[in-house]
Amino acid sequence: MKRADAAVEKFIGGYNCSQAILSAYCDLYGIDEVTAFKLAEGFGLGMGGYKDECGAATGMFMVLGLENSDGELGKGTTKQSTYAKVRECGDSFKEEMGTIMCGELLRKERDMKAAAAPEEIEASNGKNLICIKCVECAAKILDEKLGDK
């Protein structure tokens, strides 16, 4: 199963959007899933319910930091390259989804539900269809960026 599929499955199963992304990739960086779940918990629903930056995108940014940072405490030698990767992937997310802001994304939900097939709504397990699409989008960007990890 691709990590994007695993992320969507985790989200539909009860993880928030940020938890679903970080948890789907945490094993690549020596982080156990419980720690990833706890770490990402406050980032769902656009930063803890503020509906600012999308939690799926934020989870993607956390994974990019784990992938790119050299971990040299206090040195900051990889910050600029990490920021560049975050902007690149954030731009890809915006291009696909139209925005990176949770509140703006959630405003699309009503139209998505109206256009969705009944089985798609049932398979969503009560989750917002737009959020499922955001999780899938963020994970696909990561899958593309990280290759076959």
Summarize the structure.
The protein is mostly helical. The protein is 68% helix and 0% strand. The protein is globular, with a radius of gyration of 15 Å.
Q: What do you see in this structure?
A:
The chain has one domain. 68% of the residues lie in helices and 0% in strands. The chain is built from ten helices and no strands. The chain has helices spanning 3-12, 17-25, 33-40, 44-48, 55-68, 79-97, 102-106, 109-115, 118-123, 129-146. Helix 2 (17-25) runs parallel beside helix 5 (55-68). The longest helix has 19 residues, at 79-97. The model has no long low-confidence stretch (mean pLDDT 96).
Secondary structure layout:
Layout: H1 3-12, H2 17-25, H3 33-40, H4 44-48, H5 55-68, H6 79-97, H7 102-106, H8 109-115, H9 118-123, H10 129-146
